[in-house]
Specification:
Number of helices of chain A: 9
Largest sheet of chain A: none
Order of helices and strands of chain A: HHHHHHHHH
Structural class of chain A: mainly alpha
Radius of gyration of chain A: 23 Å
Order of helices and strands of chain B: EEEHEEHEHHHEHEHEEHHH
Shape of chain B: globular
Number of strands of chain B: 10
Oligomer: heterodimer
Strand content of chain A: under 5%
Helix content of chain A: over 70%
Largest sheet of chain B: 6 strands, mixed
Strand content of chain B: 15-25%
Distance between the termini of chain B: 22 Å
Helix content of chain B: 25-40%
Strand order of the largest sheet of chain B: 6-7-8-3-9-10
Chain lengths: ~270, ~260
């Protein structure tokens, strides 16, 4: 190569390589997203088989794991979320002598955003990562291959019950989070800000609309689908043994968190602007 | 019955199978041997389309399994039973539920019929006393026997064994060999066994094929395999203390039918 061109090529080499790497990352992301959506569509089509005895048993088991087993951590997080919200908002409102309105501030924040959001983050970190680890371990120990060879579709056998359980349980857990969050706010309002329980709950119920509740529950349902899809896809596509299982678990939490934030914003924008 | 026609497969830039062609006749116990990473398990996975070839075709009778999809692929796979290297039992199901799984998921058999069939297969493999035990509480050999019971539960035409004796003590290994031999004799099943245990290969195989570097270096009946003049085969035999002349001198002929 002629010397000046060689120089130019050397300067361009780094950006070209970076551009190539970026392109590869985008292609892999698109490929993964496409495959995850195909898996989701396939699992959704298999919901018709949910009344089979084994599928029913497995779905009930997943409902138990998702719902009952997460109640402890959700209780603590929901209470403290409501308490923090009430304290922060209440201290600001007190400067204007409007602290009796903390009920409505906490209720609207919890029902619209914080309830579905906090419940989704907890479920993604606990249940989502557990699903990815379980399916990932099954993938590397050839249990998924064994199912495929037996003509038992993993999307029906494994993904569908988890998808149904998370989609149904997320709105229920969100309602529970909302109630406890509002209750936590009430405790702070009464004990620290001098707002009576009666005033707090009057305001909490007066300004929150039905639409807030429906949009919040819709969000929770979408978050359930996201967590199930990401966790199952990451788990089923695990390779490279124990390292791969660790990677699938980490990826599940990161991708779920990001998608919950982005999709959550989009839904809020869709319904409130 | 199983036909590989110029099958090529690359993994991570490395050619694992290079235009591999061979046939597994019906009713035979066809053993594939080779060093680790030679492409044995990859060959086995192509037979049930757990992997697809980059070029070439894999046929099961007249069916091209390498190109099959959806319901057609499921139909073809139902002709197979597979014993995986680690048995691949579902850890949250008991021995009974693991073996009964294909019947519950894929047939309309009553629970009574399923129970009878599961008992029958587990009796064949001397595992009838372990019905309620979970896989984690079983030894490696017992897990493989349960895996084998699950593989034969729907009376498949072909059974694939991926390293059936790996990680097992010699006594249990010979027991597994005997079970594979019995299944062929009693049920007339075609078997494909992947192993690097030559003693096992000579004991059960009606034909032995060696793969090295993605190519077939020998494909012969055991009597001819042990006398092979191919350098790779000779090295492989010698590595397991089986020499062409020495095998007969040391009484190894008992392992060659």
């Amino acid at each position: 190569m002629i010397a000046p061109f060689k120089e130019i090529y050397r300067y361009l080499d780094l950006p070209i390589r970076s551009f190539r790497r970026l392109g590869r990352i985008i292609l892999i992301a698109c490929h993964d997203m496409g495959n995850a959506l195909i898996m989701l569509a396939s699992a959704t089509l298999y919901i018709r088989t949910i009344w089979r005895p084994r599928a029913r048993r497995e779905t009930v088991m997943q409902l138990y794991v998702t719902g009952i087993k997460s109640l402890g951590v959700i209780t603590v997080v929901a209470m403290f979320t409501g308490m923090i919200l009430a304290l922060q908002t209440g201290l600001e409102l007190r400067r204007y002598g409007q602290e009796e309105f903390i009920g409505s501030a906490v209720a609207i924040s919890m029902i619209r955003e914080m309830g579905p959001f906090m419940a989704a983050l907890i479920i993604a970190a606990s249940v989502g990562s557990a699903i990815a680890a379980q399916l990932g371990t099954m993938a590397v120990s050839e249990e998924i291959s064994a199912l495929e060879v037996m003509s038992i579709n993993p999307n029906r056998f494994l993904v569908m019950p988890r998808l149904v359980a998370l989609t149904l349980m997320m709105p229920i857990l969100t309602v529970y989070t909302n109630i406890l969050g509002i209750l936590g706010g009430g405790i702070v309002g009464t004990t620290q800000l001098g707002v009576s329980f009666q005033t707090y709950f009057d305001n909490a119920t007066r300004y929150a609309e039905n639409k807030d509740l429906y949009v919040g529950l819709f969000k929770a349902m979408v978050f359930g689908v996201i967590i199930a899809t990401v966790a199952c896809y990451q788990g089923l596509s695990t390779t490279e043994g124990a390292v791969g299982v660790g990677r699938a678990t980490r990826q599940t939490v990161i991708i779920s968190f990001l998608m919950i934030l982005i999709i959550g914003y989009m839904i809020t924008r869709l319904f409130y602007i | 019955m199983i036909t590989f026609d110029k099958v090529t497969k690359k993994l991570g830039g490395k050619t694992v199978l290079n235009e591999v062609s061979f046939e597994v006749p019906k009713g035979e116990t066809f053993v594939i041997v080779g060093l680790s990473g030679a492409g044995k398990s990859v060959t086995l996975k192509h037979m049930v389309q757990l992997m697809k070839p980059d070029s070439g075709t894999v046929r099961i009778g007249d069916d091209v399994i390498s190109a099959a999809r959806g319901a057609e692929l499921e139909r073809m796979r139902r002709r197979f039973g597979v014993l995986f290297q680690g048995a691949a039992l579902l850890q949250w199901l008991s021995v009974f539920d693991n073996v009964a799984l294909p019947l519950r998921e894929l047939t309309k058999m009553t629970e009574e019929e399923i129970e009878k069939t599961v008992h029958e297969k587990l009796r064949l493999l001397n595992m009838e006393d372990s019905l309620e035990i979970f896989p984690a509480d079983l030894s490696g050999g017992m897990q493989k026997r349960v895996g084998l019971a699950r593989a034969i539960i729907r009376d498949p035409e072909i059974i694939l064994y991926d390293e059936p004796t790996s990680g097992l003590d010699p006594v249990t290994s010979r027991l597994i060999d005997a079970l594979i031999g019995n299944l062929r004799k009693e049920l007339g099943i075609t078997s494909v066994v992947v192993t690097h245990d030559l003693q096992s290969a000579l004991a059960i195989g009606t034909r032995i094929m060696m793969i090295d570097g993605g190519k077939i270096v020998e494909n012969a009946v055991p009597e001819d395999f042990i006398k092979s003049t191919n350098e790779t085969v000779k090295r492989f035999l010698e590595s397991q203390y089986i020499t062409r002349r020495g095998a007969w001198e040391k009484g190894m002929e008992q392992y060659v039918r």
